[in-house]
Amino acid sequence: MEPVDTLICAAHVATVVPRQVLAEHAVAIAEGRIHDILPTHEALGRYEAREVVRLDRHLLVPGFVNLHCHAAMTLMRGIADDLPLMAWLQDHIWPAEGRHVSDEFAYDGSALAMAEMLRGGTTCVNDMYFFPEATARAALRAGMRASLGIIAVEFPSAYATDAQGYLHKGLATRDAYQGEATLSFCLAPHAPYTVADATLERIAVLAEELDLPIHTHVHETLAEIEQGKAQHGMRPLERLRRARIVGPRLIAVHSVHLEDGELDVFAREGVTVAHCPTSNLKLASGIARVADMRRRGIRVGLGTDGAASNNRLDVMGEMRTAALLAKGASGDAAAVSAADALEMATLEGARALGLEAGIGSIERGKWADLAAVELSSVETLPCFDPVSHLVYAAGREHVTHSWVAGEARLVERRLVTLDEQDLRDKAIWWRKRLS
After folding, report:
1. Is the pTM of this model over 0.90?
2. What SS3 class is residue 316?
3. Coil, strand or helix: which one is 21?
4. Under DSSP, is residue 379 helix (H, G, I), strand (E, B) or coil?
5. What distance in Å separates the CA atoms of residue 278 and residue 276, rounded to the nearest whole number?
6. Preceding amide of 18 cis, omega within 30
7. Which one of 55, 245, 313, 371 is least enclosed by Cβ atoms within 10 Å?
């Protein structure tokens, strides 16, 4: 018998590529990668595994990719709810950040966020925040895959004094963590309204030189667009286009308010949209035209945004909300199917980050970034279509296991790498400081 590290035997395996659900199949893992996918009875006869995990009531899926998050802001969950975006930012979030954000804040908030995400089946996060080196340390401690934003804004913070300083520090962090297999990087200008033209142009050059994605907020609100027109004489997306930001590297977060011509530009240039439906609803920013995007062939991944504006880091919830919103907004019940939503939550995010060769689907040779969802509870029975149940019936509370590169991060709902009591204690300590 051939030796492997782990054999995961599941009632159902949703591979994403190809779009299929395999009944009574096993995934064999060796050296962190998917070695084989085959019927369980064959796997037990062919492979001798150091560990056999029996998931007889579960659906095994690729680990979810959270395409847009501000992980450290989990420490500000619920700090200023029920407000529109700019009032929320200017009157509450930015002042709180000015008083409290530090390396310690970013580390503790990111660790708390990663615990929440791993418990919900998310194994990779694309993050944008100050002190990315602190988020890097938290990701390594959690054993979570992370794409870290080299953030840029024009205003000073505890992290840096100007855009040049932000980029310099972020690039130094990238250099310091270059050898970590679970970490990658994006250039992350916050938004057109916080970044000058010269900085955007510099970022476009760096993206080409370093072969990095660009992760930025785009057209989140109508007020943002009107402000851009008043200040620059054009819509913010046009500024990004003139700075040569718009292209296949761009991850355009939110993209709620796009005109037909702008959608055509996204399609032509190969832009990916990071769709954050819950945050958009909670901040009353609007409903993105996802059905129109998909009809044009625009890639759409899913993000939670930060817990301060969501208030959950729950990609399973985003799948359901995204599918339902697209149907309701378009009048087309097939606009985003359950299988579409699963692909948006996995492979589309991986593609946007340039990680699709390694994650996003259950295929031989890819990293074993996986999540298991139990489908035997009263809320999920009877089960006729496991993927449909994943999107429309199950919740993150049904996630029992998660793995990153074949290493268990969650087992029977218990975190393997993080101390939950320590995380609770830190969260309570920060609540007292922020109050």
Report:
1. yes
2. helix
3. strand
4. helix
5. 6
6. yes
7. 55
Residue 235: which of 270, 259, 205, 202 has the closest Cα? 259
Q: According to the model, what pLDDT value does residue 85 have?
A: 82
Per residue in 201-236, pLDDT (tens digit) is: 999 999 999 999 999 999 999 999 999 999 999 999
What are the E-state strand segments in 40-94? 47-62, 64-69
Distance of CA 97 to the CA centre of its chain: 22
Closest CA to 190 of 286, 94, 301: 94
- Cis peptide before 280, with omega less than 30 degrees from 0? no
Joined together, the tokens standing for residue 5 give 């590290």
* Nearest Cα residue to 273 out of 336, 338, 210: 336
- Say how far apart CA 304 and CA 399 lie, in whole Å: 17
Q: Specify the residue for token string 């900085």.
A: 199
What pLDDT score does 84 carry? 85
What token pair was written down for 215? Answer: 């992760």
In percent, the amount of the chain with pLDDT more than 70 equals: 100
| Nearest one of 316, 253, 250 to 288, comparing CA atoms | 253
Joined together, the tokens standing for residue 122 give 């998310």
**Is residue 86 pLDDT above 90, yes or no?**
no
Question: Once rounded to an integer, what is the mean pLDDT over residues 140-154?
Answer: 98
**Strands, E assignment, 259-374:** 272-275, 299-302, 370-374
Angle, helix 132-142 to helix 163-176, in steps of 10 degrees: 30
pLDDT at 72 over 90: yes
Whole-angstrom Cα distance, residue 76 to residue 72?
8
Residue with tokens 């993105």: 288
Any residues with CB less than 8 A from the CB of 138 and at least 6 apart, and which? 71, 106, 107, 110, 111, 114
Tens of pLDDT, residues 360-409: 999 999 999 999 999 999 999 999 999 999 999 999 999 999 999 999 99
Distance of CA 234 to the CA centre of its chain: 30
Q: What is the pLDDT of residues 164-179, one digit of tens each?
A: 999 999 999 999 999 9
Residue with tokens 């500000």: 76
Q: Is the backbone of residue 413 left (phi > 0), alpha (psi -120 to 50) or beta? A: left
Average confidence (pLDDT) over 54-63 = 98
Distances (CA, A) of 64 to 302, 303, 352, 371, 426: 9, 10, 13, 8, 26
**How far from each other are the two terminal CA atoms of the chain, in whole angstroms?**
60
Residue 435 banded pLDDT, cuts 50, 70, 90: confident
CA-to-CA dists, residue 304 to 73, 232, 382, 432, angstroms: 12, 30, 29, 25
